[in-house]
Design a protein that fits this description.
The structure is a single chain. By secondary structure, the chain is α/β, with parallel strands linked by helices. Helix content is 18%, strand content 28%. It has 8 helices and 30 strands. It has a 6-stranded mixed sheet, with no helix packed on it. Strands 17-14-18-23-22-19 form a 6-stranded mixed sheet, sandwiched between helices. Helix 1 runs parallel beside helix 7 and helix 3 packs parallel to helix 7. Bound molecules: adenosine monophosphate (AMP) and magnesium ion.
Amino acid sequence: MASVLSFEDARHLVEQHAAFVRPRGKELAALLDAQNMILAEPVLADRNFPPFPRATRDGYAVRGADLAQIPATLQVVGEIRAGVAVDSTFMLQPGQAAAIMTGAPAPAGADAVVMIEYTSREGDQVTITRTMAAGENIVPVAAEAKRGDRLLFPGMRSDHAAIALAASVGRSRLLVYSKPRVAVLATGDELVDIDIPPEPAQIRNSNTYSIAAQIHAAGGEPVLLPIAPDRHRRLRELIADGLQADLLLLSGGVSMGKYDLVEEVLAKFKAEFFFTGVQIQPGRPAVFGRIPCGAGAPAHESRSHDDPAESHDESRIDQSALKGRGFSRADTPQKESRALAPEEYKYFFGLPGNPVSTMVTFELFARPMIEALAGMTPKNLIFVHAKLKSEIKTKPGLKRFLPAILSGEFEQAEVELVRWQGSGDIAATGTANCYIVIPPDRERIAPGEWVPILMK
Ligand code: AMP
Ligand code: MG
């Protein structure tokens, strides 16, 4: 019934499913509103880049051949400022130089720009003390991009550099994918909302808020549901509400306790479970699965609008394909021969309730699914490395993602674990800015070793 995967297998399984999901739709967004959203169109160069041979230094535009013997004294015939076009009939003649500023168009006849540091000026004469190769300090027309070239691609996240590129081709609006709506459902009898004073044995619901913030960062739109108690009926109602969204994230209720009902209730929606545990710490009880549209999950509305031939009405769902699938482990989507297409499911993650586990399992598993629903081209998870500051001792068996502090300065980064009381220690995550990734076969890591880290 339960399947516990290695970290890598679990991550790959999510990635394989994520490769088949599609965003809800597209919309035009003002350039700055498009920040962090995913491009739904290519952005083309509207002119050559650069549009003119661009000087990259302040100095003198020259003919390189004039500098075969140095020092060479040339006659200054004019000054070219950035933003000012050179007369199209002008041509730099042998023995001549033109004062030029960074970003200004080099004149016809010039094939190099000498930096001002290698020159001395007297009246209209300039003496140059360095030879120049042809092309030095001039970027030729269209060397960076030709008119019509694709500068940005659909599926790219619109970060500050993408926004700069869009601005440079005159785009004040961008076609982006609509953000996926991601339902957040915290479960637990002990939970109270943040504006209610907790009784002595109660806990404030923080996971809804950490998850919502992580959804924002990943490019989704969080939809916050009320707290679900550990009771079948109410949990079922709230899961049904959550299935209206494009993705459902639950927190808590996935461990082995008597009142951990999440998997049981999801199974009533004919859920298919891809994993019900991962060999990691924190986050071991993490759950990933999907529910067929019609078994509680509505079809994706906008796509049925886009293409009526692909409408996901219940009549198309082959109920026989679902028989016996209630609680099984399924293989990768490619290997399946199901009657339902991948978009005819709603995916869900059951994240463990311990706050640090919730945060870590979101980053490791929920994030790639949200990014895919947001339209992003899949990318591999990569861990960067930093030097370990103080020794780590752990028990082998699980891959660990332990809260840590990356400090130092410039090239001297070093990292060390935060002291913590386990995955329920929300205070420890406040000071941490990353997680040290410890392979399952390591018991001791010595100071000075390079260790992989996952940034927070
Ligand atoms: P569970 O996964 O439901 O067994 O919960 C594990 C631990 O996480 C328990 O100590 C819970 O009180 C705590 N917890 C569960 N959900 C939340 C939440 N939404 N916010 C803060 N702590 C939580
Ligand atoms: Mg619980």
